[in-house]
Amino acid sequence: MATEAIPAKAREVRLAAHVTDVVTKANFDVVKAPVREPGDGEVVVRYDYLQVTAVMQDLMREDADLPMPTYKVGEPLWGFAVGKVVKSNSPDLKVGDDVEGMNGWNEYAVGPAQSFWKLDPTMFPTPQHYLTQGPTAYHGIVDIAQVKEGDTVFVSGAAGGVGSLAGQIAKCMGAKTVIGSAGSQKKIDYLVNELGFDAAFNYKKGPIVDQLRKLAPEGIDVFFDVVGGETFEAAIQAAAQDARFALCGALSGQVGNGDGAFPRLDIMHSIVRQIQIRPFATYHTPDQIWAWQSHFSQWLKEGKFVFPHTVVEGGLGKAPQALIDLLRGKHSGNLLVKLT
Ligand SMILES: NC(=O)c1ccc[n+]([C@@H]2O[C@H](COP(=O)([O-])OP(=O)(O)OC[C@H]3O[C@@H](n4cnc5c(N)ncnc54)[C@H](OP(=O)(O)O)[C@@H]3O)[C@@H](O)[C@H]2O)c1
């Protein structure tokens, strides 16, 4: 295969300053940095797509307490990306191989072949299918909430990266009714018309508990929560006997440093209903990744699943604004920035 020219310098995005309130363009530095020559056993990768997720804003805070490395001022951000090997000094990867790496806020990455995962071209229609928040959604729905045949499942933040997968996974696990909440009519239509949710409502239009009770008059068996705050309080009120809650995120608190991570818990109601509340963190263990990828691949082939995603075009320079817009609710599904 003809080798493609590798530029002497390429763009990367660094943390300019920690986020104190909400992320703005001032928190990022888009700079050109040298692309070094690969050493023995190393490869050069040209990234094509970068995945942008809500937690990246939290990783930009100085006091972030998360089970993953936070971003350091002056250093490039990390994030999952897919691309192609364009130069190889390793027998393990060859030029033209599709790979995934973790240092994706870069146009090019140079490192040991073992620091990249070789992608299986037969598994998914495109390499971009590897860039989802599937391991989290799958672990939460299957292992934590243990969704089963006939359940009524409520997913908050349902049109987002994690939520849009969680609702579809619940349906594949046999849920009778899957209800989603999101912040606009466009997203409600997307959930019901394109992702196969049975019902959805706009959490900004009227009390959440009333909307939920109307759609689930017999109560919800499972709640997959990425929002917290009033949504969590409403789900407690609308819970069926022995309901299972999988707490994945607290967007109403994370976005703009609000107090959504501290909802009130109606303890007596929770006791009477015997609600099991399980917060969880996904560590992306090989088992968790494989459980998701193998099912996602199968469900796509069976026509049961949509890859919910939005692509922002225009290169790495668009990634900072993509994160800002994601948190403002502009995008649906898993957010990818096209780098090439
Ligand atoms: N537990 C784990 O292991 C784990 C792993 C990965 C991610 N997470 C968490 O999962 C959550 C979702 O992450 P994601 O990357 O998929 O984000 P996302 O849902 O794709 O994107 C953010 C969404 O937040 C919503 N939003 C913004 N302000 C809100 C508010 N005040 N109340 C309710 N919703 C609001 C917006 O949707 P609307 O337009 O609908 O408002 C926006 O689209 C985050 O909390 C993240 O930290 C947890």
What is shown here, in short?
It is built from ten helices and 15 strands.
Descriptive notes:
By secondary structure, the chain is an alpha/beta fold. It has two domains: 156 residues, Medium-chain alcohol dehydrogenases, catalytic domain (Quinone Oxidoreductase, Chain A, domain 1); 146 residues, NAD(P)-binding Rossmann-like Domain (Rossmann fold, 3-Layer(aba) Sandwich). The chain is 26% helix and 25% strand. It has ten helices and 15 strands. The strands form three sheets. Strands 3, 4, 5, 6, 7, 14 and 15 form a seven-stranded mixed beta sheet that branches. A six-stranded parallel beta sheet has the order 10-9-8-11-12-13, with helices on both faces. β8, α3 and β9 form a beta-alpha-beta unit. The longest helix has 16 residues. The radius of gyration is 21 Å and the shape is globular. The chain starts with 8 loop residues before the first strand and ends with a strand. The model has no long low-confidence stretch (mean pLDDT 97). The site of NADP nicotinamide-adenine-dinucleotide phosphate (NAP) has 30 residues, from α3, α7 and α10. It comes from Lentzea aerocolonigenes (Lechevalieria aerocolonigenes). This is Alcohol dehydrogenase. InterPro entries: ADH-like_C, ADH_N_2, ER, GroES-like_sf, MDR_fam, NAD(P)-bd_dom_sf.
